[in-house]
Amino acid sequence: MKNIRNFCIIAHIDHGKSTIADGLLEMTHTVTQRELKSQLLDDMDLERERGITIKSHAIKMKYIASDKQEYILNLIDTPGHVDFSYEVSRSLAACEGAILIVDAAQGVEAQTISNLYLAIDAGLEIIPVINKIDLPSAMVDVVKNQIIDLIGCEADSIILASAKERKGISELLEAIVKLVPAPKGDPEAPLQALIFDSVFDAYRGAIAYVRVFNGVLRERDQIKFFVHGNEYMAEEIGVLGLKKIKTKILETGDVGYLISGIKDVHDTKVGDTITHVRNGALKPLPGYKEIKPMVYSGLYPSSSDDYEDLRDALDKFILNDSALIFTPETSAALGFGFRCGFLGMLHMEIVQERLEREFNLSIVTTLPNVEYEVYKKNGEKLTIDNPADLPDVGAIDRIEEPYVKAQIVTPSEYVGSIMKLAMEKRGVYKNTTYIDPTKADAEFEFPLSEIIFDFFDKLKSISRGYASLDYEYIGYRESELVKLDIMFNGDTVDALSIIVHKSKAFDYGRKVCTKLKDLIPRQMFEIAIQAAIGNKVISRTTVKAMRKNVLAKCYGGDITRKRKLLEKQKEGKKRMKQVGNVEIPQEAFLAVLQLDD
Amino acid sequence: MKKTACYVHIPFCDHKCIYCDFYSIITSDNISNYLNAIKKEIEYYSNIYSIDRELFTVYFGGGTPSLMNPAYIKEIINHIKNKFNVSVNAEITLETNPGTVDLNKFIEFKKAGINRISVGIQSFDKEELKFLTRIHDSETAADTINKAKQAGFENISLDLIFNLPGQTKEKWMYNLQRAVELPIKHISAYSLILEKGTILNKMVIDGKVKMQDEDYDAELYEETIDFLTASGFNQYEVSNFALPGYECIHNKAYWDYSEYLSFGTSAHSFLNNKRWWNYSSLKFYIAAVEKMNYVVAGSEELSHEQMMEEYVMLALRGEGLHLDKLENLFGNEWKNSNNEYISDLIKKGFITKKNNFLKFTSKGYALCDEILSNMS
After folding, report:
1. Is residue B41 in some structural domain?
2. By the CB < 8 Å criterion, does A545 face chain B?
3. What's B99's domain CATH number?
4. Residue A526 sits at the chain B interface (C-beta within 8 Å)
5. pTM attached to this predicted model
6. What is the number of other CB atoms lying within 10 angstroms of the CB of residue A234?
7. Which ipTM value was assigned to this complex?
8. B374, A546: Cβ pair inside 8 Å?
9. Which of A196-200, A274-278, A408-412, A455-459 has the highest mean pLDDT?
10. Is the minimum CB–CB distance between A555 and chain B shorter than 8 Å?
């Protein structure tokens, strides 16, 4: 146990987490250069394309240090996006140390800070690394000072690296051995193993990635899980090299995997503790949380014939994603579909994209929203994840919405415009600290609903891409919220209803009506598009009736072509959604996501 | 005897007009080779289809058929008459462009057997004719009609194009007025279509020309219908108007879902539920026919649904849809699935129904494609 080092890497996107990891794997001969595909740890296509590690993995390395002793180094990878902060916290909990990577040209970013604080809170030893020092735009001294200010370390304890050139990797390996504490724990105590990740395998079922804190886990042990109390047998255990390597035993301090005939990842929840059925631990390891979706949206098949396919796809999908939840719902406009809950917008986009890619489905998504708590005058409390479900205004005493604490790290010159953006987004300014004279760390509180859509894009554009954002949930607060309905010729389009702050309703209504006017094709009658709060119409646009649509010529040689054109038009109409008589193209439901100013 | 329409394509033109997407060539090479090929093709198909079949129309379209020597046309007509049964009073049309014929030539065409002339006037306005790159001026346009009349043609039609870029309502109404004052029996009034691959399309893409909007097009169209109807013309198709009894029998054959047999480049035929078409390339067509006596570039066997769809589409674009006839041919599935929509269209004034006969109103004709695409 004294020669085990469990550690993770904390880095902002693109600061070089994957290349540092690659360097460690190569230098410890865990993989050869040839085996080393770029970004080895990110094995889903989607992850590679986005350049983000979405699901964490772990890998075991053997390293003979300068003291001639062999060490086991377990690198536990962490997701890099705010949507997955709970998973990050559980990965951190499985480690004793963390490598903090900061890009020499970019400096400290919001995500670096927030994950760093999580790591410090988890009591991890931090090894600071400045990466990409060979870039022409590197500002090594500036970044050094930022790191010193942030964690209070000595300047010479910061490792200077260029992972691409494999510079600084051997110093890093030595530092891991020297600085990261060996795991503590009692081999004699009852088993306590933390699940820090789990994945689904079509043949083996759920595979849990575990860190043993106390006791030992042997093959064929009878085990149980604290969250649901179910008992299983440890069919196969092992450690993680490039592939899974079977072992008979996982000892205190070890990191490895467990297969126990569990059919999907809902029974191997991240953060849960595994113990023995007999002589088991009395208490789980601390820190488990039931993860709750933060963002909800309706998912509908483009063609109503595909409803069953969508259901099957979602059923299969959640085998591998315990964070996604879905329940059937019906929309007058979109037909049968599902209300889905996601950890955040990235999670939502990934789910949609994978459903379309891996299951070959075409999906219409409704405007995402947060979950509201509605207190009725009769004392009843409702939780609303679909604006269409909001009760009558008259019955509502108050509505509360989720708030987040947001951290924005930015070059100081953009602080002014960020303040302005924050105010537009109903942000409450808390304070600003300066990481160094040129870089500020501003803290705000925001309604979650204000920052889930376009906030990040806007932040990036007003700061020329330099500002970064991280946030965490802090609780529900009362707000003056109203439901805004969109009507076509008097019929409410349920899928376009939105809960919005009263001060923004008018502006939003105007923009939606204007945008829809351009997206709804002219039809054989005039279409009034109205935005209304309750019975009060606050905005209106009109799509004029179509006056002419006929090809002038149709003779012998045109008939085949004309019929094919007609068939295509009919096909196109089938894909339209219908509200009353009005045909609505699917883009209209998505377009409300991108309202211009 | 099965009644069948016959089309002959003459691809030769003096030049290419900016809006034209028909297959045409501007050299006179191969004119005689083409004649031989057409004759071979006629002979080939007559061996298969002439039995129990009577051609009740022959239509020379183009290109510019009137560019040809009357003897050329005569040879084709005679060949058809030799190889097929042709009705005694068959309608035999020649598409004619102003500036390509004089009185004598008209007389010769008449002698060759032509009994209907369709003149591609397009406009009586100098500027518009220039824009359309037509070779004639407005005087020649009127003169051509008068010469045809003088040569003894009773059945004369003319083509006009409206909704040209920048065309005012006054200018269009002037064109219509000029048209009805001439000794004609039939008018085809086409809204300008922007076809891919035309010079006009390129001009629009390059921003040199701006097409007029849909609402204006609709206004011109509705005025056209009103004006021509008031002048005694009967609208019997989206773009076609005739004095009573002078509807084009050949074109009506397409819209009534009659069979047709066609010869020449890019010509389409429709017989026994099958449609096929020839190559557009003149050289390719000639070479292939010389070798095999016929050539087919593509074909389709129509399913019951496709035939029904075409039948409805053509009938509604044309004089109207006879529900009893439709039911006899295709059963009652169309009626059952569209009953409700039809009632709605009647209520809203897009369609009229008399004795189980559905016919578009002028508002309905204008939205023909939209309405058809709403039908199931």
Report:
1. yes
2. no
3. 3.20.20.70
4. no
5. 0.76
6. 21
7. 0.93
8. no
9. A274-278
10. yes
d(CA B266, nearest CA chain A) in Å: 8
The answer to whether residues B40 and B293 touch, using CB atoms and an 8 Å cutoff, is: yes
Q: Which residues of A touch B238 (CB under 8 A)?
A: 550-552, 554
Distance CA A263, CA A225 (A): 14
Q: How many independent structural domains does chain B possess?
A: 2
Same domain, B195 and B52: yes
A548 to chain B, minimum CA–CA distance in Å? 5
In the A/B pair of chains, how many CB contacts fall below 8 A? 99
Q: What angle do CA B66, B71, B76 make, to 5 degrees?
A: 85
For residue range A169-221, list pLDDT tens digits in order: 999 999 999 999 999 999 999 999 999 988 888 888 899 999 999 999 999 99
Q: Tell how strand A468-479 and strand A428-436 pair up.
A: unpaired
Q: Which of A42, A49, A591, A18 is nearest to A357 (CA)?
A: A49
Cα–Cα separations (whole angstroms), residue A464 to A418, A459, A595:
12, 8, 21
Q: Is residue B20 part of a domain?
A: yes
Task: Give me the residue from A547, A551, A552 closest to B214, CB to CB.
Answer: A547
Q: Is B4 exposed, middle or buried (0-12, 13-18, 19+ CB in 10 A)?
A: buried
Q: Which of A182-186, A348-352, A543-547 has the lowest mean pLDDT?
A: A348-352
**Cβ neighbours of residue B36 closer than 8 Å, sequence gap 6 or more:** B290
CA atoms of A326 and A352, how far apart (whole Å): 13
| C-alpha distance from A362 to closest chain B C-alpha (Å) | 23
Spatial separation of the C-alpha atoms in residues B240 and B294, rounded to whole Å = 33
Asked whether the beta carbons of residue B366 and residue A550 sit closer than 8 angstroms, the reply is yes
Residue A503 CA from chain centroid, whole number: 29
